[in-house]
Design a protein that fits this description.
The chain is of the alpha+beta class. Helices cover 17% and strands 36% of the residues. The chain has eleven helices and 43 strands. The strands form ten sheets. The chain has an eight-stranded mixed sheet, sandwiched between helices. Strands 13, 14, 15, 18 and 19 form a five-stranded antiparallel sheet that branches. The radius of gyration is 27 Å and the shape is globular. Pfam families: DPPIV_N (PF00930), Peptidase_S9 (PF00326). InterPro entries: AB_hydrolase_fold (IPR029058), Peptidase_S9_cat (IPR001375), Peptidase_S9B_N (IPR002469), Serine_Prot_S9B/DPPIV (IPR050278). It comes from Pontibacter populi.
Length: 723
């Protein structure tokens, strides 16, 4: 399979590196608070590390002061303390600030600060702050325009724009709360993360208008007040009515809004919204409800008229555009787009007539991020999995010939930020044994210009288990990456219980060559308690290309389960694994997988803990479910086979199910239906809820959650700490 020629070398490198890490370890043991919420045990970082606009300078916050450096010099200096900033802000009408607010840059000498319902400029030359504009205190989804003079925000279901020296303008005035403006549409699928899109100069604002009047209300109950309060949300379930979305364009000069004529059918997905550099056109990747046909359409921003379809992409299973267009600097008629048409996300250069000029990247690996262009527009910088699906590196590609050059150094995971001038990259790096390093990289030769941070090992004083990453084979020969953590003072002559941590769904990769192999400290805590902790990324997960992901199409929980069972087979082949003491835990899709394993392979695991589990895909939202399963009408057999209510009677082991009572992602009805079916079938299980929590239990309550999970595993697997 892909990268198989590198697997042995990678595994050997990981083993050597981890052995070195173990030599550093001491004798401290983790508490649950340490594992979940102790920031001191996370790798050191540079707060608010960002490039300064129009320069090769950067700033970061340290000891409540703003530090400035240059890519061309190793000298860093304090340019502003929080006390001095607070005094200037108070003189401009703000309240006192005691910690550094988020910093944006207007230019090399002007900071932009968004706090206390106001936008402030702070001039480094004269040390004065001024109010640019203010906006409503209860504003949400605020987004500054490119000039950083206006701000778009939502209040309730309407959209507003605030500008200097003028009253806030209500862009929309919808009385029906089911019609939502300026917020992320399509339940944030297709790479959608926001609902407003400023034009390059800030003269116009494109925004989503989402009509949910046809979508069924779904009840959530807030138990904090007395009596409890009903909170209805709009939740479009698979096979049901989907919301209707249009795109408005608000002109800040005329204060008029024009809607793009995106046409019928109304149940379609408007994704990857991109402005042309001259602000005359808007490009939208329009995806049909079946999600197997995408049209890249051009619209006139002034009139809303459809101009043309530049290109189309179809797939027998699904297409999923997640990134907009990247226009080449100085060329309004050329752009780079990301397409998965060859089964791997790659870069293609097009003109605005829809003609492909050049394939820029190719191979059995994926583009994971587009960083930006060089100042002259001749090169594009990107991140990819070209070295290994376990790693992320960054590269430059020459637009004239498609030649790529790797710039990142060192095997592992690199996260890159391109400087405004395109000359340098801030590289935040980690590997399985490297907590964090931050470098400034020169884009001309890829050499390190300077080191900004070398994080110490935050768990050097703790006794940790050994982490190994290695592949095993799926039933069709596909390499599946696994991670195994063995207890400290591991003895191959002993028998150990196992906890399998599982997710297994799309858009997530658990195993990477990053700090601790992508594991968290709870897993290390479990290793300290005497467990082997095992994780496998099955077919259907991300980072391996379209064919790998689409193996699960129309049969969620089937191929993924087969792959997990291959992992179990491997574990059982090890003489130090106690096959009679195996447990499994996962959340969300991982909760679905945990429950599936407990029901469909009931003799495999003695105990399972399923959090926020999908039980019946009929109850899950349209955009996600119909991509991977088609609709219930199109795929009744697939929905039936995946419906865990049909297997409740087969439960043998101990199962704890956990759910947040106001979960708006995997609604509470999933696990409640499971309990009802268990009662009907006379099947016993354990159940726990987190009142007032949505899909994820976070904050201090997460310590409680993981104590609950751990206690349940301990009670049923009876692991004892290793001495």
């Amino acid at each position: 399979m892909i990268f198989s020629n590198r697997l042995k070398g990678l595994a050997f490198t990981f083993l050597l590196a981890v052995a070195a890490l173990q030599l550093q370890a001491q004798d401290k043991m983790l508490t649950m608070e340490d594992a979940i919420i102790n920031p001191a045990l996370q790798p050191e970082n540079l707060r608010q590390l960002n490039w300064v606009a129009g320069s090769d300078d950067f700033t970061y916050v340290k000891d409540n002061a703003l530090i400035r450096g240059s890519a061309k010099s190793t000298k860093h200096k304090t340019i502003l303390t929080v006390d001095k900033l607070s005094a200037a802000l108070q003189a401009a009408g703000a309240k006192e600030v005691k910690s550094f607010p988020a910093v944006l840059w207007q230019d090399a000498h002007t900071m932009v600060l968004n706090l206390q319902g106001k936008i402030f400029n702070y001039n480094l030359k004269n040390g004065k702050a001024t109010i640019v504009t203010s906006y409503a205190a209860d504003a949400e989804n605020a987004e500054l325009d490119p000039t950083k003079q206006r701000i778009a925000y939502t209040k309730g279901n309407n959209l507003y724009v605030s500008a200097p020296g003028a009253a806030d303008v209500a862009v929309t005035n919808e009385q029906n709360e089911a019609i939502v403006n300026g917020q992320a549409a399509h339940r944030s699928e297709f790479g959608i993360s926001k609902g407003t899109f400023w034009s390059p100069t800030g003269k116009n604002l494109a925004f989503y208008r989402m009509d949910q009047t046809m979508v069924t209300d779904y009840p959530l109950v807030d138990i904090a007040p007395l009596p409890a309060k009903l909170n209805n949300i709009k939740y479009p379930m698979a096979g049901g009515k989907s919301h209707h979305v249009t795109v408005g364009v608000y002109n800040t000069a005329t204060k008029q809004t024009t809607f793009l004529k995106t046409g019928e059918p109304a149940e379609q997905y408007l994704t990857n919204i991109t402005w042309s550099p001259d602000e005359k056109h808007i490009y939208i990747a329009v995806v049909n409800r079946d999600q197997n046909h995408m049209k890249l359409n051009q619209y006139d921003a002034a009139t809303g008229e459809f101009v043309k379809t530049l290109l189309e992409e179809k797939h027998a299973k699904y297409v999923e555009p997640e990134k907009g267009l990247y226009f080449v600097p100085g060329k309004n008629n050329q752009f780079v787009r990301v397409s998965e048409r060859t089964c791997f996300d790659h870069l293609y250069l097009y003109d605005t007539n829809g003609k492909e000029i050049r394939t820029l990247t190719k191979g059995d690996w994926m583009i994971t991020d587009v960083l930006g262009f060089s100042k002259d527009g001749k090169k594009l910088y990107y991140s990819a999995t070209a070295e290994s699906p376990l790693e992320r590196h960054f590269y430059s590609v020459d637009l004239s010939n498609g030649k790529s050059t790797r710039l990142s150094q060192g095997g592992g995971t690199h996260s890159a930020k391109l400087s405004p001038n395109g000359n340098y990259i801030i590289d935040t790096y980690s590997s399985q044994v490297t907590p964090r390093k931050i470098w400034v990289i020169n884009n001309k030769d890829g050499k390190v210009a300077q080191t900004l941070l070398t994080s110490k090992n935050p768990v050097a004083d703790y006794t940790l288990g050994e982490v190994t990453i290695f592949p095993i084979k799926a039933d069709d020969g596909t390499d599946l990456y696994t991670r195994m953590i063995t207890p400290p003072n591991f003895d191959k002559n002993k028998k150990y219980p196992v906890v399998v941590y599982v997710y297994g769904g799309p858009h997530l990769q658990l195993i990477t060559n990053s700090w601790l192999g992508g594991a968290n400290l709870w897993m290390q805590l479990m290793a300290q308690k005497g467990y082997i902790v095992f994780t496998l990324d099955p077919r259907g997960t991300s980072g391996r290309g379209l064919e790998f992901e689409q193996e699960t199409f129309r049969q969620l929980g089937t191929v993924e389960m087969a792959d997990q069972l291959r992992g179990v087979e491997y574990l059982k082949s090890l003489p130090y694994v106690d096959a009679d003491r195996m447990g499994i835990h996962g959340w969300s899709f991982g909760g679905f997988m945990t429950t599936s394993m407990m029901l469909k392979s009931p003799d495999t695991f003695k105990v399972g803990v399923a959090g926020g589990p999908v039980i019946d895909w009929n109850y899950y939202e349209i955009m996600y479910t119909e991509r991977y399963m088609d609709s219930p009408e199109q795929n009744p057999e697939g929905y039936k086979n995946a419906n865990l209510l049909n297997y409740v009677k087969d439960l043998k082991g101990k199962l704890l199910m956990i759910h947040g009572t106001v979960d708006d992602v995997v609604v509470w009805q999933h696990s409640l239906a499971f309990i009802k079916k268990a009662v009907d079938e006379g099947i016993l299980l354990d159940y726990f809820v987190y009142p007032g929590h949505p899909h994820n239990v976070i904050g201090k309550d997460r310590v409680h959650l993981m104590r609950k999970v751990t206690q349940y595993l301990d009670d049923n697997l009876k692991a004892t700490p290793q001495q």
